[in-house]
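Aim 2, interim progress: modelling of the molybdate ion-bound target.
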Amino acid sequence: MPFPVGILTVSDKCSQGLAQDTSGPALRALLEEQPGSPWQVTQTLVVPDEADEITATVRRWSAHSRLVVVAGGTGLASGDVTVAALEPLFGKRLPSLAIAMVVGSLRITPMAALSQVAAGIVGSCVVLAVPGSRKGSVENLQQIVAVLPHAVETAGAGRSTRQVHEKAAEPAPAAAEAAALEPVAAAAPAALCGCSRPDDAEPGERPTGSVAGRARKSPHRMVPVDEALVRALACVDALPAEDVALADVRPGMVLAAPVVAHEPVPAYPASVMDGYAVVAADGPGVYRVLGASTAGGLAALQVTRGTVARIATGAPVPRGADAVVMVEDSELVEQDDAGEEVMVRILARVQSGQHIRPVGYDVQQGSELMPAGAMVSSVGGEVGTMALSGGTHVRMHGVPRIAVLSTGDELLSEAGAPLSHHGAVRDSNRPALLCALRALGCVVEDLGVVPDDPEILAETLGAALRSCHGVVSSGGVSMGERDWLRPVIERLGGTVVFGRVMMKPAKPTTFATLPASRFVFALPGNPASAVVALHMFVAPLVRKMLGQGDTLEALRPSVTAVMRGPRMVLDRMRPEYVRARLVWSAEREAWVAQVADTLQQSSRMASMLAANALVALPRGTDARPAVCDGDRVTAIIIAPPSFSPQ
Ligand SMILES: Nc1nc2c(c(=O)[nH]1)N[C@H]1C(S)=C(S)[C@@H](COP(=O)(O)OP(=O)(O)OC[C@H]3O[C@@H](n4cnc5c(N)ncnc54)[C@H](O)[C@@H]3O)O[C@H]1N2
Ligand code: MOO
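Predicted structure of the complex, ligand included:
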């Protein structure tokens, strides 16, 4: 059984999502990618340069890991606190390992003298501190990687707790299974967890044991909304490109390669008018009508001087003709018994080429019709253009496949079923989330209602993550005694990236990455909270996976609007996301966000009715305790805005 390893990256910038953690993944690769590797990285996390967070994480991990590598915060600046944070934890120091790292690295660069590497044992876990740069961290670990397994074995030997630790080293069966999945999402960096726990909190929070022993404080730091979104977005990429049959193209999909015209449009010289194909040099006069070239008909006719042919708009111009005269500029001279035209008088003089679209007039063969990155809208123009390109398939980013479930013993899944017992609640979240995800462009899988049972929940999540990029659940993420989502995610080998967000509603919104680049969004059970969280976090993630962009502005569009509604007292703790209707006011030449404050409770699904925006209200202060009618606010767009008053 491989030794479980934790890799902790210490970096202010990475923890704020301002830089990508490259050392964590590089260290992981160094340990896991050697043939017959004795290591399995089971925990990864990025924390800021805060001694408390470093100490708490290493103390927690050391109970379950045999090796913890801490990268970063080992420089000489006053903000570099890693070694100072670790030293009090060391039951035994391992100076020789530290010296081996320094000596080896000095052979590569004299700069190695400028970092404080450290090694020691916490419990029976070997803990190393290495520099934070990708190069420095790898070079240091490389110096001792050959002796590390033995160091770890020795550190754990002769202790009565050894067997317990080895048991803990075995990954849960569900985690092992999930890790074997074919990755369907772009590689997601798992080391982005920004949650911090109190020192005494264990992973899994409260999966077993008596209710009396439950956690009475959330172990998750309440992260600001934008930080949470940046962290979640960093875990996904645009899905890899695939060839999609034209009939399967849907709004929201994004081109991964340009659409090129396989053929010119029109493919033949085509008439722009209903009339007569003529030889322009003939001019006005009486001419014999040879027959007709109709739209879609073959240009089998040969027009010669002194003759004309009837022609319809869009039809091929017959050989010999070089212009078209409109039917309005002609007179009938003679017809036969069947009513066919025999002779006509041409009244107008036309130039050669007049009323003819030459080959490639609309589209040149080989020209780029649509660039890579273009998104398919519901307008129809994109799909229409793809169809006239002459190709059968287009190269597009994949479409996220998302499974949706509701949790809760109280929930009735069947629409219209009688309220079976006191306390029964109709499942309104799942239909709402499925509808919104479909509209965003996802392929959805409905997992139904899952009871508050960790076994069934783990089984359902594990199975869904085999075929889907992610799962969106609602309910079971707060402090209730049957709130199982987070413990189950961790049991499946997941890393909770954030477990609480500083917002109202939807505070308990949780995001976790799982093995094989899967993710779970565990949204709160309160109906309005679940839908708000979907639009605030899941929608931008889906847009990024579809390839619609990678900036916050592109993925979570917003406008400045004038608020119309009653005075609203601002929450002093959490910024509030108020459901609103965004309307363009021709009179004010501005967006107006109409807010009704009576229905804003998180239990009220009806607060979402007719909403196409979430007005982001800041936290209240003494200087600004409330917002009033006429104030300027930021409105996050969740559906197309309206251009007519309601
Ligand atoms: N002690 C604390 N209690 C609560 C906290 C807290 O911080 N400390 N947070 C509150 C907040 S804020 C929210 S939001 C909710 C979220 O709770 P859960 O996500 O665990 O959701 P449940 O407890 O399962 O359900 C809450 C509520 O919503 C109803 N529900 C659940 N699922 C559905 C559904 N699919 N369709 C319709 N209604 C649903 C459920 O019956 C409950 O009434 O926690 C607060 N508590
Ligand atoms: O944050 Mo909860 O979503 O207020 O109700």
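The CA atoms of residues 133 and 372 lie 35 Å apart. The radius of gyration is 34 Å.
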